[in-house]
């Protein structure tokens, strides 16, 4: 949980860290260069642990509902990398949390992939079950069991603001258009949705849409807005590696396990985020961008290319092979001081090759099959905020012709302005 | 072939183009903004044609050994996107080329993937055959058959220079170390190798190595140096989508079909380059970089971020899911006027998340599990040319601390120098 990262970071007890994080103290330590952080795809975390690529794991603390004398560990709401840690760590401490429903095992499906990132046989639909309801540990490695009775720490989302709602409406509009054109079948396709406020708003919109048919999800994390959508029957089922929901929503699930147990599968991270999943299952991926450049490259992680926010997470696990890959963001941030559409991204998490659709509250840019010059026109005309359009068009004019027009003396002028004056377009 | 692109480009007969190209005239037209070129992964070309994502294909010209009245098309040395074009194009012209051995069908394995990029069932090893020896066409679409008797146009590689040989030796050294550490099994793993002079030199080195065991390849294109390696038994077998070899080498294959037919499989591009392949088969990918930045991002395609060379090709199809992903390049180009290790890449084809190992003639940087600050030290110390080391270290010092140190006012100074003075470090 977040408080573990917070407490350990405050105590300066973290030296190396891999993959997504969302603790403000840990983020500061990383940006102060006090913690060695490698931002890797979430699918790669367990893969690399399995391959002995990261530093050896000494002690792992694993939350569980139950552990048997022969080493069956019944996990709780987050499977994540627990199964591979149980195999690879030298010592294990089990946090036995009685808050969770013992019926969680009905929705857990554990397959551990070793070394390569290959795809479990039989995983042909989002809801396919191909593994076991528990993870296995060598009982002799368990050096302690700590009892606990505490819910997960998940903050409620703030109400969607107008911008979020418009982005969500644009996503709905785009998907309906694709259905009408026949590019998405009437039975729809599985959706992956990134974490955060905007992703939450998009899923709420799709869940309440009268025209989007009932659908499945194959995603990384199940957020709050999905529980009512599932309870009312619109979300037919979801595969995920964690339930990241508030205590209220979790209690709703636990009180209705007969209903939810048939509709949720919790998998290890290397299966939920496997690079093969999007391709194999035909996933529509929807992820949040920090900024996108006029040629469709996306920065998801580093403000001005230097300061880490949270990390790439699973965004590029899903977008790379997705049937349709969508990135969403507001056209501006900080009350207009920051444009999310920029001449060049100073850090790239998903290159133009993985970015098919970009959607802001202003509109939709469908970049599929488009040359760079066409992409730039679409992104500026449809997605950029009006106050930045002239600047962006002038940037292109100031650049020499080429397959991709750039002016290396001016490509980061907006970012430099932000660093120097606190706004991208000072008076 | 290359001359088709050349002739059509010279006649200004190309308006839209997708994916890799290597014609100098077409390259110029693209960089003059006269041709709309979208640089997409080679795996995506057939995928997007299958999904009707690109512009409709009016007429396709397909080279074949034979066509039967019921529409079985026996292709020649390049399968590429021919099978999906035969399905999707409105009209087909068959170029019946009697130069090629009719026994080519023994090495051809056609499976057409529709819409999604999923993996053919049963393709569990590089040599698995899962399809048919021909592609299928609706015979009523064939509007003409043109007879021909000409070999492919493939230029001989120049002899490897000292730099190429040193890069190749470093690749061999790295792979042997991985074997000793147990990260690569003694039976080895399938290799993918990018096209070009350096890739050719690397494969020659591995093929002649006494310590590297016999191995398989799962790759995009089979180049000249692989034929003798296969003929002597070191290369046990190869899956590819094209034989891009000189007439001399091709004649060697055709004269020994009893031997080679068991050792080569020619597949459609969406299978050879499938994003799933590297993961599923545990491929070691070896691709050439144009430049890499000190944090391990790779530019494979665009000089100073603007001028297209050839295109991303299959490099990122293989590197993204590879068991080990290696990028190779000389530490400098143009007699030292260009450093291949730069502060920031002005275009990124493979982001740091897909780049595990970078090798130049100077040495090896193993970036696995490393934070950005550690990556920079490794790349400058081990891979950069001595004449650029001081500049690169000073760049880091001139940058403010952060998870990734960058100085947005100076990050493209080397590239701007190159544009203005013809050299990255003028006197």
Summarize the structure.
Chain A is of the alpha/beta class. The first copy, chain A, has helices spanning 2-10, 24-31, 42-50, 82-88, 162-181, 197-208, 226-231, 247-255, 257-260, 269-272, 275-281, 315-319, 372-383, 386-398, 413-421; strands spanning 16-18, 36-38, 59-67, 72-75, 91-97, 135-136, 142-148, 191-193, 215-218, 235-240, 264-266, 284-288, 291-293, 298-299, 302-303, 307-308, 324-328, 332-333, 338-339, 341-342, 357-360, 363-366. Chain A folds into two domains: 2-148, Glutaconate Coenzyme A-transferase; 162-223 and 283-421, Acetyl-CoA hydrolase/transferase C-terminal domain (Glutaconate Coenzyme A-transferase, 3-Layer(aba) Sandwich).
Tell me what portion of residues of chain A adopts beta-strand conformation: 15-25%
User: Segments of chain A where pLDDT lies below 50 for 5+ residues?
Assistant: none
Q: Could you give the distance between the termini of chain A?
A: 44 Å
Identify the quaternary structure here: homodimer
Instruction: Give the name of the CATH superfamily of the largest domain in chain A.
Output: Acetyl-CoA hydrolase/transferase C-terminal domain
Tell me the overall shape of chain A: globular
Q: Order the strands across the largest sheet of chain A as they lie in space.
A: 6-4-3-5-7
């Amino acid at each position: 949980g977040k408080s573990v990262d917070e407490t350990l970071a405050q105590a300066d007890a973290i030296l190396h860290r891999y993959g997504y994080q969302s603790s403000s103290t840990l983020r500061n330590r990383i940006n102060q260069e006090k913690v060695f952080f490698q931002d890797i795809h979430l699918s790669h975390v367990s893969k690399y642990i399995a391959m002995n690529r990261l530093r050896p794991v000494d002690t792992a603390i694993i939350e569980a509902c139950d552990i048997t004398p022969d080493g069956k560990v019944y996990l709780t709401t987050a499977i994540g990398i627990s199964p591979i840690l149980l195999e690879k760590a030298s010592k294990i401490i089990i946090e036995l949390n009685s808050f969770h429903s013992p019926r969680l095992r009905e929705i857990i499906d554990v397959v551990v992939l070793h070394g390569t990132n290959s795809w479990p046989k039989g995983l042909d639909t989002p809801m396919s079950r191909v593994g076991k309801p528990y993870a296995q540990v060598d009982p002799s490695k368990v050096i302690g069991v700590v009892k606990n009775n505490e819910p997960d720490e998940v903050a409620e989302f703030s109400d969607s603001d107008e911008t979020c709602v418009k982005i969500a409406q644009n996503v709905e509009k785009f998907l309906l258009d694709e259905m009408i054109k026949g590019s998405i079948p009437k039975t729809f396709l599985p959706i992956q949705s990134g974490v955060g406020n905007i992703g939450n708003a998009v899923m709420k919109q799709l869940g309440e849409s009268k025209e989007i048919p009932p659908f499945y999800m194959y995603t990384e994390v199940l957020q709050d807005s999905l529980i009512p959508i599932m309870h009312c029957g619109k979300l037919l089922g979801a595969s995920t590696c964690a339930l990241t929901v508030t205590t209220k929503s979790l209690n709703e699930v636990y009180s209705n396990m007969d209903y939810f147990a048939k509709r949720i599968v919790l998998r290890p991270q290397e299966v939920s985020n496997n690079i093969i999943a999007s391709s194999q299952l035909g996933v529509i991926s929807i992820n949040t961008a920090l900024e996108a450049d006029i040629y469709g490259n996306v920065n998801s992680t580093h403000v001005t290319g230097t300061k880490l926010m949270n990390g790439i997470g699973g965004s590029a696990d899903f977008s790379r092979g997705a049937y349709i890959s969508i990135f969403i963001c507001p056209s501006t941030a900080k009350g207009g001081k920051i444009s999310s559409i920029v001449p060049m991204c100073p850090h790239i998490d998903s290159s133009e090759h993985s970015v098919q659709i970009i959607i802001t509250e202003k509109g939709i840019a469908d970049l599929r099959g488009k040359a760079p010059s066409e992409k730039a026109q679409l992104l500026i005309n449809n997605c950029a905020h009006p106050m930045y359009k002239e600047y962006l068009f002038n940037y292109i004019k100031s650049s020499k012709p080429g397959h991709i027009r750039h002016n290396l003396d001016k490509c980061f002028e907006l970012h430099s302005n932000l660093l120097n004056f606190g706004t991208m377009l000072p008076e």
